[in-house]
């Protein structure tokens, strides 16, 4: 009997997966529960186990950069090693229909070859000789002579053009492709708008120093996530998800944290923040960041991500407008903390200032609501004592 | 350098060779007392006497036959066929005898015979006096065929032809006799079989000969104003032709236009084009193009005669076409 191997749907929002690798080769014996292949989705990797015992008979997709729609058949198992394979009919395999993002020259050549078999390309003897000497595939040269004849100039022009337009192709990593797809989808669909506020950080700076003296090391991100979670408790729409045409509010407040990793970015989630102390949040952030940098994040570390904090302050960035990470409806961009001169009643004073930008989905959150939230967050950061009241 | 006409240059060549070698003599219709139909042999009769400058009866076959017999027996005759149109009357002597005897006798004899004749259109002389029949003659192994375009080339090549030990058909052009050009006073020779670049260029080569060299140079200067650099290669000798000069020029410009006054079909240009294909195919960046005489008996009407042979405008158009 033939069993289909399918691309699993591994999360609510997952529509496509990337095949990272097969753990078995065609012809191998596979036991039910053995890891058969690995899939990447929403920035984490999964090992997928065989649902039947048998023999891996056919592989329809090779590991690579192209996304495979969930529930697609990606291969076949059979109970015995040599029984006839019953393959699903129809346009199951979409590989050919997809356009590879960077067609290589050899692919183009192959295509042109097949059409050139039917039509002869007029080319002058000199152009042909030159092309041969320079290793130019004459089929890639556009002819400018009568009847499209390729002349010497066409070949030299082609060589010149090739020289000046030489470039290096950076291949799509699965992560890069996911980021590209998700960000394009978000910015194309979500009506973004942006609000900004300046926050006096003197109290937080002082608090951070005091705690440091006590041997407790916290980052500004720890403080931000902590106070954000408290403010979101009062403005729960910030942590909403827009899914299947529903605005969903969850009982726990989760805050995603954008973490830069080699060649990309991942967003692990700090769960149930509003119920956690600064200490607990800090511990969570430390361990998640470590996992992320070691490429060890699992599905449970990234799922349930809605509201996201992204901090570029360490790079002295003052302002930026991040793109919302669906199904979330808001993302916060945090800038650097800088000393600035501020006017007072009697003259001037020097204070620590930080800018916070909020990108919002206008379908869910209006400006006044966002304003009230941001104003509350500002107050909490400027007067941390307020929380106790 | 002094400038003299093509006619004077030829006359000087004959004069010098008559003076230099007592075996040289001139024979033909009206070459002696009258001085030649186009005046090329003027005054030679007076200077050298009727033994060495002889009028002949109107019989082309006899003229060439006499020349051939004299050549075989130690003389170095220069005979004249007044119009190339009459060459067919002498073809038996030229084709079956003069061109073949040296071969058929295993090289035991030589045929130092020069047959001067004149061809081409331009004087509205009609179908019997305006032809360009050089392609018939280059089809005959054993002959040499020379067609100079300038006074300088005419003199140097005629002297070489007279000293040549094989039969040479020396074809002048009736429209060139009055053209002038620099010719040194001191003696010089131009070897048979050597082409000459009349104008250097880089974009296209015009391969031509005889009067069409002049038209091609006119076309080249018109094209120069449009930024097209034309090389004009004057073959000077059609048989044996200078293949190396053609290949060298084509290797430089990669484009070829052949300009010839003779009829296009089976003409000299067909042979030249084919030689380029055989020797320089890989150098061509466009098909070789011919600008040639129309495949018609030459019309008497001056308007139609002009249309029946190439002109600078048509040469320009052809050049642009190969450069397209």
Question: Summary?
Answer:
The complex is a heterodimer of chains A (389) and B (324). Chain A is built from 9 helices and 18 strands. Chain A is α+β, with helices and mostly antiparallel strands.
Can you walk through the features of this model?
The complex is a heterodimer of chains A (389) and B (324). Chain A folds into 3 domains: 77 residues, RNA polymerase II/Efflux pump adaptor protein, barrel-sandwich hybrid domain (OB fold (Dihydrolipoamide Acetyltransferase, E2P)), CATH 2.40.50.100; 60 residues, Irregular (Dihydrolipoamide Transferase); 199 residues, Chloramphenicol acetyltransferase-like domain (Chloramphenicol Acetyltransferase). Chain A is extended, with a radius of gyration of 28 Å. Chain A starts with a strand and ends in a 7-residue tail after the last helix. Chain A is 29% helix and 26% strand. In chain A, the strands form 5 sheets. Chain A has a 6-stranded mixed beta sheet, covered by helices on one side. The longest helix of chain B has 15 residues. Chain B has 324 residues and is of the alpha/beta class. The mean pLDDT of chain B is 97. Chain B is globular and about 60 Å long. Chain B has 2 domains: 180 residues, Thiamin diphosphate (ThDP)-binding fold, Pyr/PP domains (Rossmann fold, 3-Layer(aba) Sandwich); 128 residues, 3-Layer(aba) Sandwich (Rossmann fold). Chain B is built from 12 helices and 14 strands. Chain B starts with a strand and ends with a helix. Classes of the chains: A alpha+beta (389), B alpha/beta (324). The interface between A and B is small, with 12 and 8 residues.
């Amino acid at each position: 009997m033939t069993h289909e191997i399918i691309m699993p749907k591994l999360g609510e929002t997952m529509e496509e997966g990337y095949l990272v690798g097969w753990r078995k080769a065609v012809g191998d014996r596979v036991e039910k529960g053995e890891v058969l292949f690995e899939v990447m989705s929403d920035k984490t990797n999964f090992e997928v186990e065989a649902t039947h015992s048998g023999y891996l008979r056919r592989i329809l997709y090779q590991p690579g950069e192209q996304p495979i729609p969930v529930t697609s058949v990606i291969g076949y198992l059979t109970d015995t090693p040599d029984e006839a394979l019953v393959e699903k009919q129809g346009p199951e395999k979409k590989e050919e229909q997809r356009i590879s993002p960077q067609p290589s020259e050899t692919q183009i050549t192959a295509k042109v070859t097949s059409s050139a078999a039917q039509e002869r390309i007029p080319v002058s003897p000199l152009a042909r000789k030159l092309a041969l000497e320079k290793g130019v595939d004459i089929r890639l040269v556009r002819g400018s002579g009568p009847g499209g004849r390729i002349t010497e100039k066409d070949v030299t022009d082609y060589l010149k053009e090739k020289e000046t337009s030489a470039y290096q192709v950076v291949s799509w990593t699965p992560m890069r492709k996911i980021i590209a797809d998700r960000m394009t989808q978000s910015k194309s669909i979500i009506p973004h708008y942006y609000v900004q506020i300046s926050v006096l950080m003197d109290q937080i700076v002082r608090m951070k120093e005091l705690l440091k003296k006590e041997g407790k090391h916290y980052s500004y991100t720890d403080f931000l996530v902590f106070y954000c979670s408290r403010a979101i408790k009062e403005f729960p729409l910030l942590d909403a998800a827009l899914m299947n045409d529903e605005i969903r509010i969850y009982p726990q407040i989760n805050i995603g944290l954008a973490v830069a990793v080699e060649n990309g970015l991942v967003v692990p989630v700090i769960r149930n923040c509003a119920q956690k102390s600064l200490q607990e949040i800090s511990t969570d952030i430390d361990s998640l960041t470590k996992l992320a940098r070691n490429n060890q994040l699992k599905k449970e570390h990234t799922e349930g991500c809605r509201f996201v904090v992204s901090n570029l302050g360490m790079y002295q960035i003052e302002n930026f407008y991040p793109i919302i990470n669906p199904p979330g409806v808001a993302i916060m961009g945090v800038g650097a903390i800088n000393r600035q001169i501020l006017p007072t009643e009697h003259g001037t004073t020097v204070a620590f200032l930080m800018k916070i930008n909020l990108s919002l989905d206008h379908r869910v959150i209006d400006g006044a609501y966002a304003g009230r939230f941001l104003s509350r967050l500002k107050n909490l950061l400027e007067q941390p004592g307020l929380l106790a009241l | 350098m002094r400038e003299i006409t093509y006619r004077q240059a030829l006359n000087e060549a004959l004069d010098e060779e008559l003076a230099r070698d007592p075996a040289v003599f001139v024979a033909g219709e009206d070459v002696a007392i009258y001085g030649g139909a186009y005046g090329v042999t003027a005054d030679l009769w007076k200077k050298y006497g009727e033994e060495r400058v002889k009028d002949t009866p109107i019989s082309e076959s006899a003229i060439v036959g006499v020349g051939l017999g004299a050549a075989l027996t130690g003389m170095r005759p220069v005979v004249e066929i007044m119009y190339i149109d009459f060459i067919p009357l002498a073809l038996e002597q030229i084709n079956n005898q003069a061109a073949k005897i040296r071969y058929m006798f295993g090289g035991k004899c030589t045929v130092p015979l020069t047959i001067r004749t004149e061809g081409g259109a331009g004087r509205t002389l009609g179908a019997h006096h305006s032809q360009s029949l050089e392609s018939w003659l280059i089809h005959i192994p054993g002959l040499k065929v020379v067609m100079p375009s300038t006074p300088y080339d005419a003199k140097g090549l005629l002297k070489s032809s007279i000293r040549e030990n094989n039969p040479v058909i020396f074809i002048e052009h009736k429209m060139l006799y009055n053209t002038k050009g620099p010719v040194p006073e001191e003696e010089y020779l131009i070897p048979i079989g050597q082409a000459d670049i009349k104008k250097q260029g880089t974009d296209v080569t015009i391969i031509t000969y005889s009067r069409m060299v002049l038209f091609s140079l006119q076309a080249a200067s018109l094209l120069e104003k449009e930024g097209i650099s034309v090389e004009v290669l004057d073959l000077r000798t059609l048989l044996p032709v200078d293949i190396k000069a053609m290949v060298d020029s084509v290797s430089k410009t990669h484009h070829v236009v052949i300009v010839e006054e003779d009829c296009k079909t089976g003409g000299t240009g067909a042979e030249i084009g084919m030689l380029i294909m055989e020797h320089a195919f890989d150098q061509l960046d466009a098909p070789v193009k011919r600008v040639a005489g129309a495949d018609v008996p030459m019309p008497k009407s001056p308007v139609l005669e002009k249309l029946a042979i190439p002109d600078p405008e048509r040469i320009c158009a052809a050049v642009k076409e190969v450069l397209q």
